[in-house]
Design a protein that fits this description.
The protein is built from seven helices and two strands, in the order αβααβαααα. By secondary structure, the protein is mostly helical. The chain has one domain. Strands 1-2 form a two-stranded antiparallel ribbon. α4 (54-63) packs antiparallel against α7. It is globular, with a radius of gyration of 15 Å.
Length: 109
């Protein structure tokens, strides 16, 4: 039991031990829209979160707009299915926990 308590929490995407941030799988900006309330319910909107390290969190928001996050990428599995996110997570998972890369926004076409 003590060993489990001593371990640092791990990121929900890259599984590296790190300080974590709360990523709302349905962005908070969309919570007031009736469409999302009907689809998910108020309680699910508040509690549907994934704990991510800062590099993963920044990359998710750099790659996907909020509406796409709420409509198509509202689960861990859906995020990992996105090719840019999967590539970044695979790259980051092989790096030391101290590494915090700069995240650049890709060009929108």
């Amino acid at each position: 039991m003590e060993a489990a308590r001593d371990q640092a929490p791990v990121c929900g995407l890259c599984a590296r031990p790190a300080r974590l941030t709360r990523h709302h799988l349905i962005p908070r900006r969309l919570h007031r829209q009736a469409r999302f309330r009907r689809r998910y319910g108020r309680e699910a909107l508040r509690t549907h979160v994934l704990m991510l390290c800062s590099p993963c969190h920044r990359h998710v928001h750099a790659v996907l707009p909020e509406r796409a996050l709420g409509e198509h990428y509202s689960s861990r599995e859906a995020l990992l299915a996105h090719p840019d996110i999967a590539r970044f997570v695979g790259w980051l998972a092989a790096r030391p926990a101290e590494l915090s890369p700069r995240v650049r926004r890709p060009r929108r076409r």
